[in-house]
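Running log. JK asked me to keep both predictions on one page so they can be read side by side. First protein, sequence followed by its tokens:
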Amino acid sequence: MSDQTDEFFGEPIYTYTDQQALDDGVLVVVAGEGGVNRVTRAVFDHFVKPIGDPAFQVFNVTPLMEAIRVMLKIELKEGWRTATYQGKGLWLVPNEVGGFTLMFPEDY
């Protein structure tokens, strides 16, 4: 974990790697602006909706990309961005793979 995260939350008692979270479906890979490369499954499911026939797995990612753009406009505070967007609290935090993860606070 980063020193800033340890200072804020204390020393971790357990770590959960990015790869484990991807394998478990807790994180989703995205190609967002500003280095956003992960979102939590809860954020993905909230903002991304299927389009048309579910058998073809086509999704409208526009609401998710707009949430990312809004968060990127927020001033950094100790490496994090926090805001409320469409009535939901959001955090944009650095991740272990050199990018940022968009999450709800309750996802942490």
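And the second, directly underneath as requested:
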Amino acid sequence: MTSVAHISEIANILEARAGLAAMIEIVSGLFSLQNLQIVDLSRDLYESSLERSRAFNLGLNDSLAWEIMIREGINEIYSFDSDFDNFKDLKRVAD
């Protein structure tokens, strides 16, 4: 599971490092995966994430991921971001 905001982050990084054509190919591939659920976002979800950012001194997109995980009952995240190590209810997988 991921969100459209996190796919946008991926797209920005890919475009900067690999170029527009590579980004389009990879992101198109993500949208075609049957086993990847992509969460749409709402104002309510962002407002909850902002509150979480303030409370835990965490970036907005990290807070957004955490908020989605809580709502969906997910407790494992694949990330290189060590900020997620600070939360007992999450297990970060970096491999």
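Observation for JK regarding the second prediction: The chain is about 60% helix and 10% strand.
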